[in-house]
Amino acid sequence: MLSFIHEVTTTIKVLSFILLFTCNFNTFCCAENDDVALMDGMIQWVKSEGGTVNDKVEIRRMDPGDMTSPFGIFVKGNIKESETIMIIPPQCYIMIDDAEEMDVEYGWQEAYHNNLCKLSHRLMDEMRLGEQSKYAPYISYLKTQKAGQLPVNWSQSGKRLLRELYPEGSQVVDWIDQNFKKKNCIGDDPFESHMVEMTVQRCFDVVLIPVWDMVNHDNGKKNTETGSYHDKQGIKVWASKDIQSGEQIYATYDKCIDCYDVQLLWGTGEILKDFGFVEGYPHRYVYEDEDIWFEVDKNDKNDFSIHWDSSGEYGIITEEGIEFLEEELERIKDVGKHLLQDNVENVPDREWLIIQDYYDALTTDFTFAIQASKKIKLKEDEL
Length: 383
Prior knowledge:
The protein is of the alpha+beta class. Strand 8 and strand 9 form a beta hairpin. The radius of gyration is 24 Å and the shape is globular.
C-alpha cells in the first residue's frame, strides 16, 4: 500500500511539473507571438502608407528569453554601409500642426513644454480611439507600454533616492508636476501623467514616429545616420557602416540632425531623466551655471579619456570648475555611504539597479575628470 501511494505521489509530482512547464512554455509562446503580431502589424501598416522597412531587420526583445525586456531593432541579414534601413512617411507621424518655434540660443523651454503639452493631448486622443485610430497598429503597441519607465513616475522611494544624486534644484523626478500640472496642461489623472511621460520618452523633437522610435540610443555604438523628419518623403534612416547579422541598430538621441544643439545642454543625467536608462560610454556632463561641459569615454581596453567642449561655448574647465566637481563628488559619495547601503529605502529592484548604475557612473567619471583636469592645469602652470 505504501509503495502504491509512493508511486501515485511520484506520478502526481511528475504530471504537475509537466503541467507547470507546459503552462509556462505556452504563456511564453503566447507572449512571444503577441510581440511578433504587434511588430509585424506596425511594419505592414507603415509599408501600406508608402513607407519602407528593410526586410533584413526585425523588432524584438533585447533579451529574447525575457518577455519583460525592452524592444530593439536587430539585423537578421548583413546590411551594407549606406543601405536604407527604413523610411517612415509623414502620414505615419503623430504630430501637432501649431508647434511653437524653439530657439535654443534665446530660450526654448517654454515653447518646448507647450509643444509637448499639445502633443501629449494629441496622443491621449488617439489612445482613447484605440482600434478606431488611423494609427491603430502603432497605438496597439503603445498600449502595451507601462507607466514608470521614466524616473518621474517611479515609486516615491525611488524618486527620493535618485533626487539625492542630482544637483539641488534638478527636476529629474518633478518635471511633470512643475511643467505640466502646475501649468494646467494635465490634472491628477494617472493616465494623463503616463501620456506625458510616454510623449517625452518617445517623441523626436515634437513628433511621434512609429518604428523609428524603437531604435535604441548609444553614441558609442551608433551605426546609423538619418535625414530630417521634415523631409517630404519622411525620415530616412540608413547604415553609417556595415552592420552584421545579429547586431542591434543604434541611433543617437542628442546628436541628431533635428536635435538643434541639445548636446550642449544635455548629458547622461538628462538621458536618464527623459529616457529612463543610464547610457553607455561616452558619458557627458553639463553644468551650465558652472560653465562646465565634458565627456568621459572608455575604450575596449577599459582605458578612459576626456573630451572638453570644442564649440567654444564652455572651453576647458577652470580651477573653480575643478573645485565644484570635487565638492559634487564628495556629496555624491556621501549619498552612497548613507543611502545606497543595503537598499535602506526599499526601492523596487529595477529602479534600484538604475540608481546604482548612475551612482557608479558619476563617481567613476568625476574621479577621472578631476584627475585629468589637474594634470592639464599642472602642464599649464609649467609653461
